[in-house]
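S1.2 Input.
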Amino acid sequence: MRIKKVGLVCVPFGLGGAREGAELGPRSVMNAGILKQLESLGIEEITVRDVLCPQRPTGLPSGGRMRYEIEVRRMSDLMCEQVADLTANGYMPIVLGGDHSVAIGSLSGITERDGSPGVIWIDAHSDLNTEATSPSGNAHGMPLAVALGKAQFKLSGASGKSIRKEKLVLIAARDLDPGEKELIRADGIACFTMHDIDRLGMKTVMDRALEIAGEGTASLHVSLDMDSLDPSEAPGVGTPVPGGLSYREAHLAMELLAESGKVTSLDIVEVNPTLDSGGRTARLAVELCASLLGKTIL
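S1.3 Output.
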């Protein structure tokens, strides 16, 4: 499937994590040349939209277990409008975060417009904590729990729809909290850990992921956390975990997603230029986005 229209949604939001700097991610990815890459792929229409996120908390963290709940809600509401509008007008939304809490806004906009999408979540973490199970209360560890309707915090939008657990696939997980492990097992969520990737190989894992998340769904959302890669490849992330995806494993995953022709929206999150080495992680993010959009070696 040739992608003709892309909408870049820049979301400079970093209050969902514990470390400053993720809010600078969208600018760093833009500076790394994502527009030039999109143009080189022959995409006919490219629009860029900026979400004016709150940069500083308006008060103390929420009394609940999600820190800065008010600010997360404002960000999510604004994103929901942008993503839903882009989708309605035939654009493929590509969300540039920001920490991974921005995916609450992505999934809000997608479910508002397209119902319940298939979701492939490529991340060192599962982001399935609720307010009750989160050790930190940080929102970037909760977006999937929110999207599944497991958390007190709910997706933005009027539809009230959630994603379906049977159409969710986690890939590259290797740092899971006890409550997340319990939820994955209890709900039978498909989770391909790094052990599974080592044992089966990336192609088999992606084939299975596409079969689970991509069959029988009107849309397929991919959420790429740059900490899914090994820190030796992507040092500029807030929560690095050793033993992650190699450069080629990550590119192969994106290439197989492109070949499927099923992906309709994408997040690229957790690029933190304050922790990066010469913009290396941002450049890799651009390369991986290009592979998902169809760029090939030959």
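S1.4 Remarks. The chain has one domain: 5-292.
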